[in-house]
Amino acid sequence: MCGIVGFVGRGDAKDFLIKGLLTLEYRGYDSAGVAVVREKGDLEVICRKGKVAELSRAVKELNVTGSCGIGHTRWATHGEPSEVNAHPHIDCTGNIAVVHNGIIENFMELKEELLSRGHAFASETDTEVIAHLIEESYEGDLVQALRAATSRLIGAYGLAVVHSDCPDEIAVTRKESPIVVGNSVKGAFVGSDPIALIDYTRDVVYLEDDCIALLHGDGKIDYYGPDAEPYYPEPTHIDWDAETASRTGFPDFMLKEIYEQPRVVSDTIAGRFADGAMSFPELEELDSWLDTIDGITIVGCGTSYHAGLIAREFLERWARIPVSVEVASEFRYRSPILDDRTLVIAITQSGETADTLEAIKIARSLGAKAITLTNVIGSRAARESDAFLNIRANIEISVAATKSFLAQVALLACLAMHLGVKCGKLGSEDIARFAAEIAAVPAQITQILNERPEILRCAKACSKAHSVMFIGRGFGYVSCKEGALKLKEISYLHAEAYPAGEIKHGPIALIDESVPVVVIATKSDTYEKVVSNIIEVRTRGAKIVAIATEGDESIRKLTDYVIYVPEIPDCFSPLTTSVALQLFAREIALIKGCDVDQPRNLAKSVTVE
Ligand code: G6P
């Protein structure tokens, strides 16, 4: 949530800041701002409500120049989205500017204290207290002042600070919120995400909690540990390709990411099947412990939670281990029954979701061991688990998750097979069959991408509805949940997913000609039951869009529109039906004129509760 950038060096800081903020805009986009130190004693701060484009215009008009600056794109938590609440925030003297990701939990108390000492506040944010705390501690040393200020903070923060006394320095620190720094011949850079830096350097340092980095204009970066002693971290090489952060000819990132899915699924499963066995070297250290588990709890939020629901089916079918799946924000406030024989599987694309992180922490404190599936290797979730598995989806920029979902599901299938083998429930023949079936999925996804014209026709037919119902059974039901979430997220159309067998118990009362029903009716053991459910809603006048297996001509007679997907074992059907539903949601959103990459009120990573 929110994006931080900073540059100090040779050249104009504003170019890097605006470009970086545009790159990080997917993390938050309700207001943005920059602070540039023009020369000693001259700090200029410009903020705008709305997207970075607004800020960019203002920065150009006001001709802000200077070679040291910080910037921020915001997803509001404390204080409504407005120019006054946008970061950077400044102290009473106007010499110090701060950008912040995270939440300061004790800000009310600190604010009272600072007010009583005569500080004047301009915004409603928690962040502003930090600027005033630094002001109080500053005696010519920015690092020392930052350390003193953060020692008073309770909560999570990624921070970048400039002082007009130091036109050649940026001080940064973090606690539970990522900060990445790097340098080149041009100078030193900071971002809350390495994607802001990859055009300038591929070697970055992920700052650790409670450490401070001081960036200098000559590119030098000094690092100080929690004990204030200097240290020398090893940089991490980022090997994303140059196209990662660009739309490469696609009109939006969502479509680009949907089209990447055949490759992503291949990458995710690559190397997992070796000579009739499963390969999970990352789990080697847990190997003998995994033989002792008697229960699995899966935690995640949003789309990642849906991947968990699918994984339950895999794990219970193939490994015969009881599985519970929980929304992380609920799990953390229950009294979950876990012990040292429970495996927790945390699913989080970003590896930053606050509730999922807390769920991992709670589970481990109860003796369970946690394996995290994530797309971000250096993320907190990866670091705070007993083992992590990289879903290998490459960076996902569109706020609505697409390719990360498919990668999660594919990897969870492999993991379930691995546990099935370990539990003696699956043998090499099963593995060989699964390997062949899942290897066919990328080509099957490509086939669905070719169905776009038909999906557009269905989308047009549903775009004027005020509500869409999604029904299915088993794997089809979970795909419906994900399809409904996609539609809500990006088109703001109300959508509900129900198990098809459950509609008689209430939801069918909602059905009339104005409520289209999307039905997953692919070939499965419950196909005939789903057909009966189609007849039930059809009788109530609903317009029906079916996702069906190619060759199923009889379904045409019962429905208004059919999107065909290739024949696939039912267990892998979420890997194909979801793609059709992603495209369906995107087409509706576009017809309704919505911004599919940056839907209102949402953010890619939810780093606050
Ligand atoms: C946000 C995103 C969703 C995502 C969810 C969980 O709500 O908009 O797309 O599914 O967070 O994120 P995670 O990074 O933990 O998978």
Give a structural overview.
The chain is of the alpha/beta class and 609 residues long. It has 3 domains: 3-238, Glutamine Phosphoribosylpyrophosphate, subunit 1, domain 1 (4-Layer Sandwich); 247-439, Glucose-6-phosphate isomerase like protein, domain 1 (Rossmann fold, 3-Layer(aba) Sandwich), CATH 3.40.50; 448-591, Rossmann fold (3-Layer(aba) Sandwich). Helices cover 35% and strands 24% of the residues. The protein is built from 20 helices and 27 strands. Strands 3-2-4-1-10-9-11-15 form an 8-stranded antiparallel beta sheet, covered by helices on one side. It has a 7-stranded antiparallel beta sheet with strand order 5-6-7-8-12-13-14. The longest helix has 20 residues, at 403-422. The model has no long low-confidence stretch (mean pLDDT 94). 6-O-phosphono-alpha-D-glucopyranose binds next to helix 9.
List keywords for this structure.
609 residues, alpha/beta, Glutamine Phosphoribosylpyrophosphate, subunit 1, domain 1, Rossmann fold, eight-stranded antiparallel sheet, seven-stranded antiparallel sheet, 20 helices, 35% helix, 24% strand, binds 6-O-phosphono-alpha-D-glucopyranose
